[in-house]
Amino acid sequence: MKPVYLDNNATTRVDPRVVDAMLPYFTEQFGNASSIHAFGADVGTAIRHARRQLQALLGTEFDHEIVYTGCGTEADNMALLSALETQAGRNEIVTSAVEHPAILALCAWLEKARGVKVHYIGVDSRGRLDMDAYRKALGPRTAIASIMWANNETGNLFDVETLAELAHEAGALFHTDAVQAVGKVPMDLKTSEIDMLSLSGHKFHAPKGIGALYVRRGVRLRPMIRGGHQERGRRAGTENAPSIIGLGVAAELARTHLDEENTRVRALRDRLESGLLQRISHAMVTGDPERRLPNTSNIAFEYIEGEGILLLLNKAGIAASSGSACTSGSLEPSHVLRAMKVPYTAAHGAIRFSLSRENTPEDVEHVLEVMPGIVETLRGMSPFWDGASATRSAFTPSYA
Amino acid sequence: MWEYSDKVKEYFFNPKNVGVIEDANGVGEVGAIACGDALKLMIQVDPDTDRITSARFQTFGCGSAIASSSALTEIIVGKTVDEALKITNQDIADFLGGLPPEKMHCSVMGYEALRAAVANYRGETWEDDHEEGALLCKCFGVDEGMLERAVRNNNLTSMEQVAQYTKATASCSTCAETVEEALERINAAMVSEGVLDARDAFVAGALPPTRRAARKTSPLVELSTPTAPARLTTVQRIRAVEEVLTELRPVLQGDGGDCELVDVDGNKVMVRLSGACVNCQLASVTVQGIQQRLAERLGEPVRVIPVPAGH
Ligand SMILES: Cc1ncc(COP(=O)(O)O)c(C=O)c1O
Ligand code: FES
């Protein structure tokens, strides 16, 4: 049995076509893009081409709207830190309780070290943003609102266009962490109100360690890393040419596969999800089934703990992940599931399956085959699971 | 993912003694689903001999929680209740070839469940909810008694360790201050009893000693000065150390490692870890385990120092 990789929200396999495109830029065309000689000039041309490829995926108009970074986290940090500097007299951030640590840990530090006031907007039990609270939090002191486009754990999509408009009404900038959305959701930023957008290559079959921040033309950006004049002085440091070129090819591939992502991959995900819910009682989908990434399914299995599930899945050759405390070392279930108030009986047993265009129907069938047995084994050990109907009938999965 | 020992994996994938003893005469339940792990331990004790004849468990929790529960049942069957009570969480961890530090609370849970089951057998109303002193951490139901046992059994001297062994403070952390105070108090008591060096004791808000300060006043120097007279002769001590190492060796060898006595100098015991133990992330846990065993046997604090191979 070939291993089944269903952890694509954690990272993806680099597409072999991406690797092929990158290789010459390590050994043959290894020049520094800033150099005047041919070694450098060729690299400069290749980077310009790669930038256009990425622009096409995002639907941006101007090449200088893209600033390459070392990762998605860097892009997120750059966006918030820059806004605090450029938005004079504004010292507040509005964000959500379910952001990635790339935003949340930075905000926690800004509160402590810089006295920035941060509003963390909550979500309902399906993970939908509290729009009233969002509106109320925005004001003349808001420097920037930052809400993710898609949540990495549940796959929930946020209405970033409306959120951006509301932020602008308050005179604030709007940034979105689109690390999980790029390549899975169609984008046309040239018609968008979004001011800044973060992305990361390794989530769509480019290598790890390359990301980008989109900065809408006219939006001021203060560099976080100062030095040379690369990226027009907005992000110093010799360009990571092979990765930028790989990111370009990955973007082009993502664009051609975007329909597939929303048809074939979505169908596989739906088959996996409905198959599991049919076969296993006391399981619930967390998140908003109506507005979700096509590749993500987060299912909470009641009365058992996620790490055990992952260890047994791994033994069966299946890779998935969990927001459970035990696997993260945090001793606490995921902040996302807690913000959604997923009941404790279920939160500890939440498993995230995230697919990509590389998955096949056989992958899904394999999971459907082994998962019921795994859940049964662990429930058989659980003191909270009495196979009797008392517990069973007491619980009805609901999104209320 | 965690670096689990083969023994932990074995006890997770093929746990022994899972299930219920219908007519158990001792039942201990600790933890809660909200906390992320919970264990129900059932024991059958022969009232004439006080010997545990069988033990079974049900566990909700991660891989190491299930493995620790299973290991516990294996360890206690055949022991008298009094013998079983001498087991500490470290014994459970040792039995499993060590646990990652973040997972030590799984062994503590086993230890607490055993105490609860024995109390239940003896007809005492031991309750998880805080018969023993104030409840310190609401999120994880850690009371003073449990904290003190975990701190003493494992020589905990930092808040990080306390979280790893008991989970206290790891959620809302509103209990941080109370737990800090309790840790400081317990450590201070240990210092005055001579089982903990004053320099290692936790002091709330204190900075860690600088490297230079630590070097100048190494606790080892003090321990071996006449102010802390050794009760055993050197030969006796070496013999006792050898005995303990011989006992522990099978556990280490089970993990593909070994341990050899290099030298004994006052209260310093130099050992050489070899094989899988050397690069094992759990080396420090192993060393701690050996250290605790030695301290128990010798009845005095010792410090185990791993020396590199070839020395
Ligand atoms: C939503 C989100 N934001 C940011 C990141 C961080 O991206 P990177 O790993 O490139 O720093 C991730 C990836 O884990 C993510 O899922
Ligand atoms: S009370 Fe201790 S972590 Fe919440």
Automatic annotation (TrEMBL), chain A:
Catalyzes the removal of elemental sulfur atoms from cysteine to produce alanine. Seems to participate in the biosynthesis of the nitrogenase metalloclusters by providing the inorganic sulfur required for the Fe-S core formation. The lineage of its organism: Bacteria, Pseudomonadati, Pseudomonadota, Alphaproteobacteria, Acetobacterales. The keyword Metal-binding applies. Belongs to the class-V pyridoxal-phosphate-dependent aminotransferase family. NifS/IscS subfamily. It is an enzyme of class 2 (transferase). Its cofactor is pyridoxal 5'-phosphate. It comes from Acetobacter lovaniensis. Signal peptide: none annotated. Its EC number is 2.8.1.7. One of its GO terms (molecular function) is pyridoxal phosphate binding. Keywords: Iron, Iron-sulfur, Metal-binding, Nitrogen fixation, Pyridoxal phosphate, Transferase. Homodimer. It comes from the Bacteria. Residues 4-366 form the Aminotransferase class V domain. The keyword Nucleotidyltransferase does not apply. GO terms for biological process: amino acid metabolic process. Pfam families: Aminotran_5 (PF00266). This is Cysteine desulfurase. InterPro entries: Aminotrans_V_dom, Aminotrans_V_PyrdxlP_BS, Cys_deSase_NifS_bac/arc, Cysteine_dSase, PyrdxlP-dep_Trfase, PyrdxlP-dep_Trfase_major, PyrdxlP-dep_Trfase_small. It catalyses: (sulfur carrier)-H + L-cysteine = (sulfur carrier)-SH + L-alanine.
Automatic annotation (TrEMBL), chain B:
Transmembrane segments: none annotated. Pfam families: Fer2_BFD (PF04324), NifU (PF01106), NifU_N (PF01592). GO terms for biological process: iron-sulfur cluster assembly. Residues 241-305 form the NIF system FeS cluster assembly NifU C-terminal domain. Fe cation binds at C35, C62, C106. One of its GO terms (molecular function) is iron ion binding. May be involved in the formation or repair of [Fe-S] clusters present in iron-sulfur proteins. Residues 3-125 form the NIF system FeS cluster assembly NifU N-terminal domain. Residues 136-184 form the BFD-like [2Fe-2S]-binding domain. [2Fe-2S] cluster binds at C137, C139, C172, C175. Its cofactor is [2Fe-2S] cluster; Fe cation. It comes from the Bacteria. InterPro entries: BFD-like_2Fe2S-bd_dom, BFD-like_2Fe2S-bd_dom_sf, FSCA_dom_sf, N_fixation_NifU, NIF_FeS_clus_asmbl_NifU, NIF_FeS_clus_asmbl_NifU_C, NIF_FeS_clus_asmbl_NifU_N. This is Nitrogen fixation protein NifU. It comes from Acetobacter lovaniensis. Belongs to the NifU family. The keyword Transport does not apply. The keyword Metal-binding applies. Keywords: 2Fe-2S, Iron, Iron-sulfur, Metal-binding, Nitrogen fixation. The lineage of its organism: Bacteria, Pseudomonadati, Pseudomonadota, Alphaproteobacteria, Acetobacterales. Binds 1 [2Fe-2S] cluster per subunit.
